Amino acid sequence: MGNSPFFHFLTLGLFGERRKHLGVIALSVVLLFLLASTLFISSSLHSSLSRALESEPDFVVQRVRGDHLLPVPEEWVDEIAALHGVSRVAPRVWGRYYPKPKLDPFLVVGIDFLEDQSQKALAKLMEGIDLRQFLSGEKMLVGAEVARWMDGHFYPKSFSFLSPEGKFLKVERFGLLPSGSELVSDDMVLMPIELARRVLGLKEDESTDITFNVPNESEWSNIEDKVAALHYDLRIISKKENRAAYTRLFDYKGGFFLVLYLIVLLAFVLILYQRTSQVFSHEKRSIGILRALGWSIGDVLRLKLYETLSVVVASFVLGVGLAYFYVFGLQAPLLRQIFLGSGMVGTHLRLIPVLDLSVLTSIFLLFAVSFIAAVLIPVWRIAVTDPKEAML
What we know:
Number of helices: 15
Largest sheet: 10 strands, mixed
Number of domains: 2
Oligomer: single chain
Order of helices and strands: HHEEEHEEHHEHEEHEHEEHEHHHHHH
Number of strands: 12
Helix content: 55-70%
Structural class: alpha+beta
Shape: elongated
Distance between the termini: 26 Å
């Protein structure tokens, strides 16, 4: 059988049944759009989180009593630094500051510019900052969302923090934290560590927590046990635990959408199978005529396979293309709130384009195989019957 008759019938089938094909494509595009959008958002957040955690310390030590965080005394730093195998031990000062009751808080972070670990962790956030001018007075760097809030509440140049002692501390806005780090810095207020202690009500010899690194990863468990034995009221959090916690959160929400998608896809395939099983009489006749003209069962199946593949590819390209534009062009309005919540971070967080070819391939195969099976099985049942019966 030559190529010309085959592609003539293929074109005739596509355009002759264009209403049916366009309806199936429209429904398929909606399904693929929802799944691809969910996976794009999840992949983008995973990528941003991985980059944010690269410069984080290996371990964080906190002091807890009754599930409440307490200030960490300065001598703990020396005790941890004395352990063999530990490096880059540094105190950290941070805390939530509520500008008004029931409003989303700022994350106040104090940075010690003389301490190497702090500089490494916040190096990207301090790029292009004139440290001499920044340290010349009581100044701060603010994230994009904090700046928007301050501008909207008439604090364009400075903001007065109310310390726990009841004193107002006027801090000048020195600049904005760089874009592209919104997952970390969107709600952040960065200031010198001594100023942060005053804002948060900590003493000069107190910190929020202590960070340290363990260069030999095989010693992580051993060092963690040694640090835990120093004091009864400390809690140790590793970088792996932080990563796993965020990953579980995003995977849970992405998995929820995936389960819904699979349910809807199964329903769609069942409807499509039932619809195709009840083939119209003229479609049965067309298959019977092709068989009477000498077409083999394989030829008929190949014709319907190419026809179905055309619908599948068109649906996939349109669905994934629209999802890509919706997520990375329009920044996924509405859907992003399901992943990020309704807090301060997430309102203006920019989703960075990330494409995972293995995920796209899995989407295509999952959709294509089920779709093709739902169409070809009824066609095969007609093609194996006697041509005379099919044309009745």
